[in-house]
Amino acid sequence: MMNRIAILTAALLLPLLLQMNPAHAEEAAGRDPLRIFALEEGASLFPRGIVSWRRFMTDLAGADVVFLGEYHDDDASHRLQLRILEELALRHDMQLTLAMEQFERDVQRVLDEYLDGELSEEEFLAGSRPWPNYPEHYRPLIEFCRANGLPVRAGNIPRRFASKVAKGSLPEMYGELTEEERPWVAGATVNEHNAYYDNFVNAMGGHGSGMSDETFAKFYEAQCIKDDTMAESIAMIRDAYPEMPVLHINGSFHSDYGLGTVERLVQRRPQDRVVVVALRPVDSFLGLDPLADRELADYVIYVPGPDWGDWKLETRAHEEAAAAAEAEAAEE
To answer: Which residues pair with 154 in a beta bridge?
Structure first.
C-alpha cells in the first residue's frame, strides 16, 4: 500500500520537478507551482505535452513577439508575468520592449518621463490613468523596467475613443479626431465576422444578451479598434527596432487562438515569429486536459487560482481511495 501511495505522490510531483529551472533552484521555495504545456504536437520532450521552465523560456527567447494572455485580476498570473519579464530581459541583455494593454497611447509621454526619472511616482499615477489593480499587479513590471532601462510602450487606444465607437460609429470617431489625437488610434481596422467574432458573441452571452443587432455590432467594432491599435503599436516597435523583441501583456481574450491582437499583428508583420502564451488560474492540477484544445495558444500555463490548496485535499482523497481499493482487492 505504501508503495502505491509513493508512486501516486511521485507522479503528481514529477511535472513540478521537470519544470524547475536549475538556475533558479535556490528560489524555488518562493515560486508558485506551475504546469506548462506546449500545445503544438511534438513540441514537448515530456509526456502529455509538459514542458520544463528552461525549454519554455528558451523558446520564448527565440521569438520576436511574445503575448502573455492574462486574467486581469489573478495574482499568480501577474507574479508569473514578472518572472518571465525578468528572465527574458536577462536573456536579451536588457534589449527588450514591454508593451501593455493597460496603458493608452496618449499617456506615452508621461510613461516615458517616469521611466526616465523625470516624474515622481505620484505625478506618474496622476497623469497615466492606471488600472485600479495597478499597485499590486502592474507596478512590479513598470518598476523593473524603470530600474533596468527597458522601454515600455503604452499600446491601447484611449478608452474615450473606443467608447465613441461603441456609442456612435467608427466613421464618426475617426472624423472627430484632431491632428494631435490621430496618432493615438490605429490607422485602420476591420470588423470581419470570423472566428474572433464568434468568440466575441459567446463571451457577450450571445445575441440574446439584450442588445440590438446594431448595438452589438458597435461593441464589436470597439473591440476590434482596440486590437488593431495594440497590434499597430507592436508593429511600430518592430518596424523601428527590428532587432528588439517585444513582450506584450494583455487580457487573454485578445490573444487566445491567435486571434484578436495577434492576428492583426501578423497581418502587419508576417515575417515576425510570434509565440502566444495563455495563463490560466486553476484550483487544482488534477484532471487538466490542455491538449483537448490545441488551437488555444502555443503554450498554456496553469497557475494557482483563488481557491488554490483544495487540490491537496483532492489528492489526499484520491490516494486514500486508491489505497482502500488496493486493500479491498487484497482481502478478496
So the answer is: 100
Q: Which three cell numbers stand for residue 23?
A: 538556475
- Which helix (H) or strand (E) segment is 251 a member of? strand 246-251
| Residue 212 φ then ψ, to 5° | -75, 160
Strand partners, 247: 66, 98
Helix (H) or strand (E) holding 321: helix 310-331
- Nearest 5 degrees, angle CA 256-CA 296-CA 227? 15
Which amino acid is located at 132 in the chain?
Answer: P
Q: Strand pairing partners for 249? A: 68, 100
Report the relative pairing of strands 299-304 and 274-282 from DSSP bridges.
parallel
- Closest among 95, 99, 112 to 244, alpha carbons compared: 95
Kindly give the confidence (pLDDT) of every residue in the chain, 332 residues in length, as a single tens digit, with 9 standing for 90 and above: 334 333 333 333 333 333 333 333 333 334 789 999 999 877 776 667 899 999 999 999 999 999 999 999 899 999 999 999 999 999 999 999 999 999 999 999 999 999 999 999 999 999 999 999 999 999 999 999 999 999 999 999 999 999 999 999 999 999 999 999 999 999 999 998 999 999 999 988 876 567 888 999 999 999 999 999 999 999 999 999 999 999 999 999 999 999 999 999 999 999 999 999 999 999 888 888 998 899 999 999 999 988 876 555 566 666 677 777 666 666 65
Task: State the Cα–Cα distance between residues 49 and 165, nearest whole angstrom.
Answer: 42
Q: Name the DSSP letter for residue 48.
A: G
